[in-house]
Amino acid sequence: MASVGRETPAGDLRLANLTKRFGIFTAVDDLSLTIPQGSFFALLGASGCGKTTTLRMIAGLEEPTSGQVLLGDRDIARLRPYKRPVNTVFQSYALFPHLDIFENVAFGLRRRGIRKVDDQVERMLALVQLEGYGRRRPAQLSGGQQQRVALARALINHPQVLLLDEPLGALDLKLRRQMQIELKRIQTEVGITFVHVTHDQEEAMTMADTVAVMNAGKIEQLGAPAELYEFPATAFVANFLGQSNLLAGEAAGAAGGEVPVSAHGSRFAVPADRARVDRGPVYLGVRPEKLHLVGSADQVPAGRQHVTGVVSDASYVGVSTQYLLRTGWGSELSVFVANSGATAQLPVGTEAVAHWDPRHAFLLPREPGADDRTSPALDEPVGATS
Amino acid sequence: MTALAHVPTGSGQPAAPERAVRSGRYRFLPYLLLLPGAAWLFLFFAVPLFQLAAASLYDPSGSLSTGYALTWAFGNYPDALAAYWPQFTRSFRYAGIALVLALLMGYPLAYAIAQKAGRWKNLLLVCVIAPMFTSFLVRTLAWKTILSDNGWLVGLLRDVHLLASDGRLLATPVAVVLGLTYNFLPFLVLPLYASLERLDHRLLEAASDLYASPVRAFRRVTLPLSMPGLVAGTLLFFIPASGDYINAELLGTPNEYMIGNVIDSAFLVRLDYPQGAALSFLLMAAILAVVFVYLRRAGTEEVL
Fold first, then answer.
1. pTM of the model
2. Going from the N-terminus, what domains does chain B have, and what CATH number goes with each?
3. For residue range B73-88, what is the model confidence (pLDDT) as tens digits?
4. Does the complex come out with an ipTM higher than 0.85?
């Protein structure tokens, strides 16, 4: 127990070739990554992608099939959870119902044999803005308050790494936003490494310095939120993190700082530094908000590329209007037009031209034979004007 | 048994707010629903209890043939206690030892069924309950066979020299305690199981994450959260066990007789009604006192 505590020099958290199999199912597949000390790291992925299993292996609640979990230079992968300088904020909070808030928060300190806990607990309750709640039972608190108790209960131990397992999942939208800001504030204040597991891409992007997108037990891409969003590495990332219009095309190799792409009988070009591949089957990707709509091809500004189509759907969502533009070859492109008041609504059925700056496009590898991937707006309001 | 009404059911959740239907023709509905049960209790519990109380104060010199007179003979109580003090203490001693044995077996059993049994859970529960489908008497007689001098158990114990070559189990305090332990074990296991079954496994993970070793996690989380079942189970075990007379009758000798045997013989053999009634009340008072002290110490702390 002596090795646990704030005196221990912390270090980067490194996962080396971490693998977890349940029977024949591989939940985490040869995962390697480094999480710098003091960073806010998000593991983002759909349910079943292995992100929670990864987190549980760091916490010690799951034993890896193979690989290492290194904290500084120490491999902690086979330590029992109660011997690791790591604490977890559980998805269900898992507050002890028989103990009051004070004792819940003091639990970790007491188990480590610390007698004088009052000051620390009070300070921690103040940090999560729950002063005066010490004598209440968990069941008497709201969801958001319980979440903060769970956070305080973990943070009070000054772990080297704090693990957050979808801690905001049970909260309503407004409270979630509030807690996101709160968590970020606390992380900056205490400077502990946070590893946050979530399936909510917006949550990951708002809070984390670095986001790793997981899919089928592997990391698809890792980077700063803006980097992931602006220049995704795979079609999965392009569509998991926001939406993308991905047009199936063929690239013929970089030439003069550009990669020419032919898709659906038209020729496009993408700057070479925006191409993940420059030869063979590719996806030409453009985010819906990077597309602009004009009435005809001669209105397209110089230096921009375009696709012609017919407006097949228009959903007014307040801050923007989300259009679907049916192209000549039958795909529907998503186009978000900000509601800045500059342009009038385009009615369904009108012909329109979507154009974009080539520097906003990106090229991704494509499985041979895979068709366009243009996901229609999933959050399209029911009964939208059409 | 009325004391059981005070056993906390302890879901940890505050009670749901009462429905505000307190007006109009539904106002008397709760009392109406209460009526059959209340009438039953009054006729067959309160009235006989009152009669028994009266009987305990009859003149002890009376008999069934000469009739009894209510002379407020409070002396019946100290007299009965003085005459049967050994049986009195023996009852609580045997029940107490049996309770400890039952806890040592019952807690791990209930824990295993509730938390670790997986798909075998229901089968194991049936195994716990199934003996209850046969009569109490038959089960105790079966134990008589198991513990008999030429049975396999005694033979085995003699062979490994845990028992002298002429040693026996039947007709000893051991037999009575074993019988009590066996017969009332399900009453302990079932409430415990109900408590442990509700135990959220994630709380143990949280405890482990917060530096609690398995032993400490048990002491700080599992045990306190199973207290409602533990309290209910120990009471359901201890109360009938301390008043039992079948086990001492069938597995013991008069040297092992408990207070239940004395009351039994006072009413049915010696026909000494005042003494039987006084002993009954003394037993009831002693049990109530034990339960009260127990609930004060264990029942309120960390349960609600």
1. 0.79
2. 30-73 (no CATH), 86-298 (1.10.3720.10)
3. 899 999 999 999 999 9
4. no
